[in-house]
Amino acid sequence: MEELGVQDVGCPDLLTVLLIAHQKTEEVYSSRRRHGGHGLRRLRKVRWRASEYVETAPNWPIWAGDPARVSQPQAAYNISHPANHPPPSPHSSGLSLLLKTAPGSWIVSLNLENTTDSKHKAIMKVTSLLRYSRACPFLGHSTPSSLRTLASTGSSTGANALTAKAIECPMMGPRLASKSQARAYASVAGNREVEEIHKQKDINFDPTGTPAGKCPHAKAAQQAASVAQQAVNAKAAGKGKAPVARNTAGGFDYETFYQAELDKKHKDKSYRYFNNINRMAAKFPVAHTAKTSEEVDVWCSNDYLGMSKNPIVLDTMRRSLNKYGAGAGGTRNIAGNGALHLALEDELAGLHRKQGALVFSSCYVANDATLSTLGSKLPGCVIFSDQMNHASMIQGIRHSTAKKVIFKHNDLADLEAKLQAVPKDTPKIIAFESVYSMSGSVAPIEAMCDLAEKYGAITFLDEVHAVGMYGPTGAGVAEHLDFTAHYATRDSAEPVPRSVMDRIDIITGTLGKAYGVVGGYIAGSADLVDLVRSYAPGFIFTTSLPPSVVAGAQASIAYQREYMGDRRLQQLNTRNVKSQLKGLDIPVVPNPSHIVPVLVGDAALAKEASDMLLAKHHIYVQSINYPTVPVGDERLRITPTPGHTAEQVEHLITSLDSVFNELDLKRESDWVAVGGRAGVGCPNTKVPEPVWNDAQLGLEDGSAPVTLAQGKEHVLLPEAIKVAEKRLTHLLDVGPRLSHEASESQ
């Protein structure tokens, strides 16, 4: 019997047959179970094999009835034991699909009558379709009748509507489009209209650097066309090299699956492009792009205070490199537990006024490891999670296998209603963040503590975007809520009784944002920290942070504990940016924190705005899209720093205004007209008061720092530098000290 999988098939509705067969196997199984049929075994992995396509009688039309009524006269879809299946006719012009099901006890036979209607001509080979038959998203949402209707309907592309749908499918589309893509590349590459398009978009290029009449983009398109065409030709000739070796013939096509998943991201505009941005310590907050001569202002870094270039941090890291080398040498349990690691954990415990702290390679790992460990160890634990929690917390809860209850964002009434449904003696964790990074919203931390105490829960507070930024010593929002009490006792590591920070059971934070280095940590009771240290795989089985990193982190924390000037100026610059944007009707998601989320509301437009700011205005602001924010809430996330000058602020504001005009993006008044989105223009929305009040910023007594003027250096506090250096003197007594100390000793 000839295998049809190696040649074009002359059946006009081949695609319909194969799609229906794939769906019908599951439909028939489900229906037979419901109607007490023959007890068809559960279909496990369905494999499509070219050898299972054979010629047979052409006289059965496609059946579109209830799959349970297999005795219907018009039925062409039958389930039968192999022994009862009629032998195929060697002279037929139609097709029969024999699809064996695991464990091989049944055969699904689907037959199609022949037709000569040319507009239904199938354009696919069986070999191409086999790659998609196990995982076609479109198929799962289609009925046989709808597929047949599509197959008999024309489309604007010239192919039938079913083929057009297949082209849109992320699984089938890439293979169908391969030849047309190659032709499209070739047609665009030499098109003179490309030049006109670039002129309209104000994109210039050097005509002497490329062939006459060709722009660099067209030249790149020509090269891509050549590569694509070679791939198509090689595939047709059977001589192409596979990008990776397949395990066995007929096995799962991994590369096609990878491509299909990526195609989904491209199609919904959520695919992420990583810009080549190289921040320069000496020119903070300026960076260069892939070209070292091309400099841009960075307005979206999480290096909130510029501590990555602070002299005390750099000097400390250099000295630790000289003395202890580049790497830790192992896990914390095996050769990687040094005095610098222990000193950093003592510093962090003192910062949050807790009994202990534990350092991780990142706060993602810290959150994941801590929640997964606690959730799995506490008997019958239930974890209550804010719906806007970070992915690291979500992953930790998932890994714990504990019961998860999601409550509405910052909604105390919803949280309490859900806490009431769980017995008080059941272990419970309320997991939430202080500052939510993409909206800038701030949690009602004190009220969360009230609910936790009332219903017998412990609190897990992520202060990742708050440490270094809030509070008199930079311990976060929990410290800031009792600002006066903590400021008065800022030199003590003892907790302020019944303060909000004291009432929080577990605090997690990062060393990679306001502190300018890398790493994460938890702080809490001594026994809690020891439990996580002893049981968390994310801590036990990974190499510890390098000595230079933990030393630099401790220097950064110690400096910020002594000096409020950086975070005060950051807050003042944030207020300034928000105020000027509001004056231009540019929509900013209202919040009380240091985050400036500019709402765009469309993934493609958000990326285009980001690209335009970079290419035309030399400003880098990253666009944020799904899944980081919900679809429709896409935005530009701006984070002012104390290092931004007044001139850079002015340039940002005028550039954003220009981009909003050029792309015709919705202003705040436009969002008001459509009912609002993401808190912008929503009726009865109250703009929250900033976490930092005027008195804390020094606006009332005249001590507030001033935004830098062009050419002015970032202010450093010598007293804070001395304190930070003193922390590590006994461990890093090698190499030169900072210049200010050298000058003082002369």
TrEMBL record:
One of its GO terms (biological process) is protoporphyrinogen IX biosynthetic process. It catalyses: succinyl-CoA + glycine + H(+) = 5-aminolevulinate + CO2 + CoA. Signal peptide: none annotated. GO terms for cellular component: mitochondrion. This is 5-aminolevulinate synthase, mitochondrial. Its cofactor is pyridoxal 5'-phosphate. One of its GO terms (molecular function) is pyridoxal phosphate binding.
